[in-house]
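Re-running Phosphatidylglycerophosphatase A to confirm reproducibility after the cluster update. Everything else is unchanged from the original entry.
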Amino acid sequence: MNQPTFSQLLRSPTMLLAFGFGSGLSPKAPGTFGTLAAIPLWWPLQHLSPALYLSVVVVTGILGCYLCGAASRRMGVHDHGGIVWDEMVGYWLTMFMAPAGWGWALYGFVLFRIFDIAKPQPIGWVDRRVHGGVGIMLDDILAAGYAALVLQLTAWFIG
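Result of re-run:
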């Protein structure tokens, strides 16, 4: 399958979610647009208790293994750039227990994108060696871990 159209995404809930409600259709930087699409969905999540927030992230991460794997198989390309559910979950994980406010939301966005693009070890190794839906999700989860660590350290030093 070539790049799907938005109308094709609307006919497949799996593809619609995997492509971040259409944000992954961006011809330039789909991962960045997928991460941007995660921000308005994060806004209400930040008000949940830590346990409930983390539960949502775990469930969306597990769901992402299926969604990303199914979309990848349908596209015939491992980790097609338009598959951005992994970026969305990665952003939500980055923002777990982050301080409130748009400045922190932007800071988390920038940190996550830096680590997702740069892929410091072991992220790069996972990206090259672990395939399927788990592999698509795992490199972003690791990038989110790095980004969350830097965000939390920054908040601690500032606070």
